[in-house]
Structure prediction request, 293 residues.
Amino acid sequence: MSNTRLMAVAGLALSATAAWAQPVALTQSTNTTTITAGNSVSCNLTVAPNQICADNDYWRSFNLNTNGAILAGGLTVSNVQFGWEQAQFPTGTQTITVTLYRDTNGGAPVAVGTDLVQVGTGTLGVANGTLAFGTCNVAGVFAKTDTMVVRIGHPDYIPTYAPPPNGTNTNATGEAATFFIGSNALGQSGPSYIQSVGCGLATPGDLAAIGFPNMHIIMIVNGTTSAGGGGGCYPNCDLSTVAPILNVNDFVCFNNKFAAGDTYANCDLSTVAPVLNVNDFVCFNNKFAAGCT
Prediction:
């Protein structure tokens, strides 16, 4: 099909039947609403009657290529939801950091510079309390072929809040400074990982492999997925980055993908055969005319 034919189709009285991007929520937790008290572990120092956490990072890895919920256009992340079994901090609120990575070789995550490339990061202020949930805004764009890794963690509290000789705290008994992530033993479809230099875990370790098989971290990654497009902009078919990113090359690209039967060409996300049809050309023209926002 030629570019001339594509331009001519734009004049037909047809419209797209669905938006090109659709919401998606990724989780490996069988149950995402139940936090079980006493189920989570962390690396910490106990100075009776208080606990002071060392550095603790909790991880999950998502292979987007094998996840049927992720369409050919990949995933645009908007936020990550997680829970905490217990949070206690001297100031009343502690900062928990959520970081997104692209794993360059798949498998278990290792370290930034080894197999992990940072994609995005965000923070959430967590107030003192127990058995609660929160949402951290964090943005990142991943291709369908990517393995996405998510880390939730906090720094080492011992130097500041443990009593001498462990820290600089003038309170001889130490102050409570803890964060135990929310988990349960209700099932998971992928490993839960923990990392803590303070406890000798320099890289993420599978909780099941280090003796905690029933600690299934509760984590939900929310975003949108699409039939295709570059950087979250569907009509940028050729993934160009030089202005104007939307140009005649995108029409050529779309024609080629349609001819090849690529799922990207299913612009209107139709499910009735044939899923690739004239409506997809109309849809693409409309998306191109709307531009990238």
